[in-house]
Amino acid sequence: MHLILPAVGIGIGNELNALNNTSWIATAYFLTLTSFQPLYGKLSDIFGRKPCLLFAYTIFALGCLGCGLAQSMVQLCAARAVAGIGGGGMNAVVSILLSDLVPLRERGMWQGCINILWAAGTSTGAPLGGLLADSVGWRWSFLGQVPLCFVAFIAVYFVLDLPPVSHDHWLTKVRQIDFLGAFTLVIAVVALLAGLDSGSNLGWSHIITIVALSLAPVFFGLFLFVEMKVASNPFAPGHIIFDRSLFACYLVNFFGVAGQMAILFFMPLFFQAVQGLTATQSGALLVPGMIAGVIASLLGGWIIKRTEKFYAITVSAYALLFVAALPLGLSVWFRSTTGEVVGLVATSLGAGCGITTTLVGLLANAAVEDTAVVVACSYLFRSLGSSIGISTGSAVLQQVLRTQLASRLPNGDEAREIEENVRQSLDYIKELPPHLAAQVRSSYQVATLGALALITIYLAVSFLTAFWIKERPLKR
Fold first, then answer.
1. Can you tell me the mean pLDDT for 202-219?
2. Do 126 and 200 share a domain, yes or no?
3. Same-domain check for residues 317 and 286
4. Residue 179, class by beta-carbon neighbours within 10 Å (0-12 exposed, 13-18 middle, 19+ buried)?
5. Among residues 257, 261, 205, which one has the least CA distance to residue 399?
6. Alpha helices in 202-273 (DSSP H)
7. Which of 38, 360, 375, 457 is the most exposed place for a label (fewest CB within 10 A)?
8. Which pLDDT value is given to residue 138?
């Protein structure tokens, strides 16, 4: 659904008279998706994989129904938040099920197949959203998901045959839930993501940003205390959180995703702001990298299946991801479109392979009974990495852009006005006189290089952390 939103967001904002708040349609969904994803691991251990997946489909369908019937932006965002609770389960539980059912040496190949479906959805989501918005209206972009969820629910209910995890009464199972841990984790994640979103949009000195980012580490600390000292059946036991190899895999995922997602976020902006390309053209330049990432994921899975080893291919993948960021930066400096596309392909090769092999590394280093929790936590680290990578990169880009415009434009008020207008719409650059447009494009180029410098640091950390992962036999 989030792939369709860019194409229908303007129509939603116009009809609900809230065009300036359309970003919250995506933010509301992402907040709950990221917050609840890690909870599904332990919940699926308590209640079973199948009931949790059916619950996720039901909640997602109800959220989509609410979105389609919403009469205000507040109602729509609330419904999106409900859908995010279900979406988190759809992601996490399916991955947990695959890890349960597929031999570990073949897990990478199956992950590659899933990535093919993801790539297909990514490439068709925006055009499909535009088609729906122009034909039957944006509401059917949401309502159309409801019957699909119903079909998925029926298929899972009748086809997926899994033994029950226990025959305990449902009240007994409810008592096993770590409610305090769930509460502190959800509050911590929501505070962090809300603070990052506020910092990017309202400024890093805004009171909402300061309060949210101050609360996040407090509640993360409380979550760790609850899991280590209070909870009898914790969502994230200490032997998982502080295991060297598992934590190394989580950090590799966090910093690798932070860097790669930031690259995929900033490069289209660079194509449009500096090289004057359209949104369609800049999107097309990402397609080769998308294809390369899928191929690398399949290749990484195939190598693991043949060799039954994952350490060397994981280190190699993140080495490629880190090294490829350097020529990508040079291509941005020289404004070489060919070099930029090659750089994107190279980084996607490393990221696509690495995200698959680290998943195998996590499963190989975890006990069988910890599979669900380990997989669910990996989604949390990926989501947080994506948010932090983009938010901190945006902060660097905006600061460098502001400094560059102030130094290149003699009139300080003019520089501030141009900066504000460019943040609202990149089309504003085309309205400027040629000499001013050239200065703005050059400023944006240097600002992009500043963001890429931070991204390179993230990728270097992911590469170095990969050495901490332990090789384990793939016996399961």
1. 90
2. no
3. yes
4. exposed
5. 205
6. 207-225, 238-241, 244-273
7. 457
8. 75
